[in-house]
Amino acid sequence: MALRQPLRRLLSALFLAVALALLPVTVLAATVDGIRFDDSVTVAGQELKLNGAGFRFKAIFKAYAAGLYLTERCTSLPEVLAVGGARRVRLVLLRDVSSEAFRQAFLDGIRKNIERSERTRLASQLVRLNTLLGESAGLRNGDVLVADWIPGVGTVFQLNGQKFGDPFPDLVFFNAILKIWLGDKPADAGLKRLLLGEIPDDILR
Question: What's the pLDDT tens digit per position in 14-24?
Fold first, then answer.
């Protein structure tokens, strides 16, 4: 009888550890405060799994929800950059934003997180991206912006399911986009943690 109580405690601890290990996928895969992110998506015939999802806060307001899809689970930027196959970033806007404000924020996020050598390599593609974003009519609450990396094709943008612009062929360009949220100076440090699958503190309380 003396061994039963410690054994029960040990089993309870093991079950809790397993539950917490699975919690980010279970919670984040379904919804983020009402915004749905599917467990998996298919990009160019390849199944991708939701790595993490969360909100981008600007001041005290939620600007958009974001989800990161990869071929395998990653918990750090180096792992994300090294993973093979297709990738996807999905943004769901929660506020109206002008084309100028979005263009500026997008490009600033890239420039803050890439090295000088990368800026030189990507110069022409960043100019083209600047033009592409500047030509848009702005984004509205509920709009869905997707950036896919498709091996052999490049970075493909979609807005509300419609492709816009020609592909950007360099993988370094897509990695630069990822660094907006996962780089050393991310747009939102809390969102970075969530995209990398960390358990939010409030879930554990």
Answer: 433 333 344 44
Q: For residue 119, what are the CA distances in angstroms to 111, 148, 179?
A: 7, 21, 13
The CATH number of residue 100's host domain is 3.50.70.10
pTM, rounded to two decimals: 0.81
Number of domains in the chain: 1
Q: CA-to-CA distance for 87 and 80, rounded, in angstroms?
A: 9
3-class SS letters over 122-136: CHHHHHHHHHHHHCC
Tokens for 119, please give them.
């800026």
Give the separation between CA 182 and CA 151, rounded to whole angstroms. 21
Q: Which residues pair with 47 in a beta bridge?
A: 42
Contact yes or no for 73/52 (Cβ under 8 A): no
Reported as a single tens digit per residue, the pLDDT across 55-91 is 887 654 588 999 999 999 999 999 999 999 999 999 9
Tokens of 3: 């061994």
